[in-house]
Each structure stands twice: as C-alpha cells, then as structure tokens.
Amino acid sequence: MAGFDYFDEIPAAVTICDGKGTILYMNKKSSATFARDGGSSLIGKSLIDCHPEPARRKMLALLESHEANSYTIEKNGIHKMIHQTPWFEDGVFKGLIEFSFEIPSNMPHFTRG
Fold first, then answer.
1. Which of 4, 13, 89, 100 is the 20 to 30 A CA-CA neighbour of 29?
2. Closest alpha carbon to 54 in 46, 45, 44, 62
3. How many structural domains is the chain composed of?
4. Please, which residues bridge with residue 43 across strands?
C-alpha cells in the first residue's frame, strides 16, 4: 500500500486494516509472522476472520469505538507488545494499525497458550 512503505523493514510486525476490518497492508515482518495463515495473501481479506473469540469481539469493538488497545503476550517463549491504534485521514477514521514487537521477558505481560 503506497504511503506505508516506510514500515516495510522495521523490526516489528505492522498490519493495517480499513474501517471495516479488511487488511490493506502487511509489512515484511507481519507477512512472515502470519506465514502459516497465508502471509501477504491475507491482504484483501477480513482481519475479523483471522481472530478467534474473544479477540474477534475486541477487534469489532475497536473498529466501532476508534479507540486504541495495548497488551503484552507470550507465545513460544517470546514476549511481545501488541498495540492496536486507529488511524485517521483529515480527521476521518480510516481503520486500525497493529504494531507487534518483541520485548524483554521481565516486562509485565499476559501468558497465552
């Protein structure tokens, strides 16, 4: 997606969806992170369909409320910070951007299976 190319090579997974939850952009790290789910072939598909409950409900709520959401996870022994934030153009809500990056294990986090 033009305009988001500067995210291509940062060491964080960046996934961008529109206001209805359709994936518009995945940087290289995001495509690699979700390779088992289809990687960059997920672009154009519903972000909502990629999430089980209760995450699906949370994504729908974020799309409705235009609010940010942050939390930490642990998966396969790797701790990550997840930050989902709305993005706007000229004050109009356009969708969500999710940033996912590794963090040190001594930060507060939720353990997930």
1. 89
2. 62
3. 1
4. none
